[in-house]
Amino acid sequence: MLFRRGKPHAQRAWLLLVTLTTSAVGAFYVLRFAQEPSPSLIFPEPAHAIAPLGIDWLLVQTQIWSAEFLRIVWPTHLCADYGPYTVRNIDQTCAFLSILTLGIFQAILCIRNRKIALASALFWAALLPVSNLVPIFRPMADRYFYLPLAGVALLLALALAALRPGGVRAFGTAAALAAVVALVAATLQQQTVWKDESTLWRAVSLENPASFNGWLGQGYACLEKGNFTEALQHFQHASSLAQGKNAEPFADMALCLDAQGKPRQAAEALALASKLDSRYTRPDTLVRALVFPEHLAQRLHLIALRPSLP
Question: What would the pLDDT profile of 133-159 be if each residue is shown by its tens digit?
Answer without folding.
Answer: 989 999 999 999 999 999 999 999 999
